[in-house]
Amino acid sequence: MNVQPDSATFVALLSACSHAGLVEEGSKIFRSMSEDHGVVPQVDHYACMVDILGRGGCVVEAEKLISEMPMEPDFVVWSALLGSCRKHGETQFAELAAAKLKELEPEGSLGYVQMSNIYCSSGSFNKAGLIRKEMKGSRVRKEPGLSWIEIDNQVHEFASGGKHHPQREAIRSKLEGLIGQLKEMGYVPETSLALRDMEEEHKEEELYHHSEKLALAFAMMNLGSFQYEGSVIRIMKNIRICVDCHNFMKLASELLRKEIVVRDSNRFHHFKDRTCSCNDYW
């Protein structure tokens, strides 16, 4: 294009590499910023690189990059490292990142919630309980998982558990039927994601009522309203979609023969014929 790339250009490039899992390409672009284009990396470029390395499984390299930053790492940098630790079960660096997040934003819940999740995933329920106790003692509140769907020009909101929707009983009944059909197709609940030490059937029950599943069940009750949109079901979500719901949506797209788009806090997930546009990398 014969246009000199600037700082914003490289943020866009590095973000794209992060979402696509291009570790080598992202590292090459990061190095070329100053070497070939005279653009000095800023904290947002470092945050992108930490995300690229961490998501790609190079958590040690990501932490090393943070230690070599010429400026103080900010909340985004540490949250990128913590998210990578959650993805790859790296407890040691996760504890470091969570501690930094608590220092930078004492009222934020991210550090507490992610560490609780990491401990639960590894079976360390006592440690997870201590984290939740500390969180409660600090009067930090977790952001609730919410999903929204628009039908006939009206937006419907769903919270995990679905206790407050006026049609909650019908929605739960529809969802139970859908779960049964998906299990016949191979759906197996990711009970390792349950956040408490409980019986297996209760873990499954907790996963079944995540807000995006409830939104999908409600959409099924109103499928006629989606015909004019080309049979695309669109769901908005305020936090990151979990692995279980991601698997659930892939199978549901094939069962319903509809495209399902879920916009979570990270990206758009476009589900069609049992696959997702993110290639299971988010």
From TrEMBL:
**Which Pfam family, an example, fits this chain?**
DYW_deaminase
User: Which PROSITE patterns does this entry report, sorted A to Z?
Assistant: PPR
Q: Where are the PPR repeats?
A: 6-41
Is the keyword Transmembrane helix assigned to this protein?
Answer: no
- The yes or no answer to whether the keyword Transcription is present is no
| Residues of the DYW domain | 186-282
UniProt keywords (A-Z) are: Repeat
Family named by the database record: Belongs to the PPR family. PCMP-H subfamily.
**What name does UniProt use for this protein?**
DYW domain-containing protein
What organism does this protein naturally occur in? Xanthoceras sorbifolium
- Give the source lineage, highest ranks first: Eukaryota, Viridiplantae, Streptophyta, Embryophyta, Tracheophyta
